Automatic annotation (TrEMBL):
This is VOC family protein. The lineage of its organism: Bacteria, Pseudomonadati, Pseudomonadota, Alphaproteobacteria, Hyphomicrobiales. CDD domains: PhnB_like. Residues 4-117 form the PhnB-like domain. It comes from Candidatus Rhodoblastus alkanivorans. InterPro entries: 3_dmu_93_MTrfase, Glyas_Bleomycin-R_OHBP_Dase, PhnB-like. Pfam families: 3-dmu-9_3-mt.
């Protein structure tokens, strides 16, 4: 079945560099196709126009559309992590030149905002007896520490 919805990210000249980073960082990820600008077109001849990639099997299109629009944290990609090692790997891979934010959010150097969140986070904050403590602990963190969240849940 053909997917009806594909996420499209708008970049200002760095789509190919960004997709190469993502495809190298995340398993089950790859650059599928790169279409390039020709002579006399909007972009520099030979520069990437549209890059199609898969991240964790999800198709994403990256467009070098220019500086007219910018990515914002109002749209983010959430990566669900099973272990602290996985949290660390993705966080560290996106941190170089990026902007860490609270509660596991980070905007990478290309302007894409990510949530690097443990899979157990939803369960921990959903408990009516302990969820408030867990959320308060998470809001004090930049990169999420799973053990600290579990300690907060235990009181």
């Amino acid at each position: 079945m053909t997917r009806k919805i594909t996420l499209c990210l708008w970049f200002n000249g760095c789509a190919e560099e960004a997709t190469a980073l993502y495809a190298g960082l995340f398993p089950e990820s790859r650059v599928i196709d790169v279409s390039r600008y020709g002579d006399g077109e909007h972009g520099a001849p030979g520069a990437a126009r549209i890059v199609t990639m898969e991240l964790f099997g999800q198709k994403i299109t990256a467009i070098n559309g220019g500086g007219e629009f910018a990515l914002t944290p109002a749209m983010s990609l959430l990566i669900s992590c099973e272990t602290q090692a996985e949290v660390d790997r993705y966080w560290d891979g996106l941190a170089a030149g990026g902007k860490p934010m609270r509660c596991g959010w980070i905007t990478d150097r290309f302007g894409v905002t990510w949530q690097i969140i443990p899979a157990q986070f939803k369960r921990l904050i959903s408990d009516p007896n302990t969820g408030g403590r867990v959320m308060a602990a998470a809001c004090e963190m930049t990169k999420v520490d799973i053990a600290a969240l579990e300690r907060a849940a235990q009181g």
